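Hello,

Our lab assistant flagged a job as stuck in the queue for most of the afternoon. It eventually completed. Since we weren't sure the result was trustworthy after the delay, we are filing this so someone can double-check. Below is the sequence as submitted and the structure that was eventually returned. Let us know if re-running is recommended.
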Amino acid sequence: MQKLKANSDRTQILNSSLIGVEFEFYSNISLEETKDSLSKVLGKKIRIEEKAHSDFVPTVDEFKLEPDMSGGKGLVELVTGATPYRNARIIIIKVLNWIKENGYTNDRASIHLNLSFDSKFLQDTLMVSKMNVLKFILEFDEEQVYRLFPNRKDSTYAKSIKWIMPREESYFYDETHTSVNNFKFADTKYYGINFEKAQKNYLEFRYIGGKDYEKRQDDILYLAERFIMQIWKSCNNPRFSQENKLELKKILNKNQPLINMLKDYKNLNKHWPKINILVDLQESSQIIRLHWPRIKDKVLKLISDGSMEAGIINYDSDYSSLQVKDGVFKTAFLIEDVELISCKIMGNLENCILYDCELDGAQVKHCSLYQGSRVKESKVESCFTHGSVTLTNCYVAGRDTMFKGKMIGGIFREGFKSDDARFEDTEIVVSKKIKI
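-- returned structure --
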């Protein structure tokens, strides 16, 4: 069998690629009927999983259908196995047509493309896992996605990959010595491209989606082809071009306010006038400068990953913890390991403690919610929920969930609940009483 070469033509490259697809959508019929109908349309075996991100790995012959409450009650996800390019195109067309006839999508639904190459056509079977991720980021045409799907530009689940920072704030960029080791860049699943998947020799593209994406067949197929070709180009030409270096300089210039903030905390309020920093609730410059080296990276994450727009950040030196009061986070890609008081948040939270907060359209994992926090249209997983907290149209999951609050609508998928927990029009699937 003939192996692909770096200069192979477009048709050869595409025909050697594999596409796995994750379709998020709402169905107008039951889950069982959805499975049977899609199975008939696709000519594939489809199994129903009880919860999202199940352990079953789809194959080219057997797909899975599972609930995905990241988009609220009723959202389901069809996950295909890695399928040869030409066949995958047909699957995409058929599923999009099925959704148009039997379901719908909204702003919280998306379609993820998992792209790789068939190893039997490759000279280096681990090509994608070895790719120069920084080079890929620099030459990836992200604007092509936003031109076709402009509403995805500020999605909390698809942060721009055009975010690069020096590993050391004292670093001075010299384009003649560009090295991947000098920079920090996209490294979590919440970016438009999930580079964590490169370890498994493929990339997950999360950009595409939004209301009525099922009506965008030509755009989706066009982008799938472009993504494949861009992966191939980066993998087979790892050296930084002059255009790459100019793009890097452009991104670093854009992030200069963050770099300046790391050097001197005074620049925080200069560039973000609605954000103030305290240490032990004190405004003393001397005290803040003393502790700044310990907290500057955490503050950086609040702004870059949390998209914090306003609020007070306090560092509690006794407990080495960061607290935010009156924070505004409209598109939080990820907030983690922070104590949040009276904040308004839309986005992703992990390992946080919340008091009197308002959450809307959030994914909350391993958090504790207290003091009348209000959560709407969100996924709350493996969390402790105090009796004063109200969840509206939410999806509660996680075997280690501890729930004492009130739910209006939504689904209580699994977890422990107290005798005092209140439910109104909530679907309770599996629950256990908390033993006191």
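-- support follow-up --
The delay was a queue issue, not a problem with the job. The result is valid. The chain has two domains: 10-248, 257-433. The chain has a mean pLDDT of 92.
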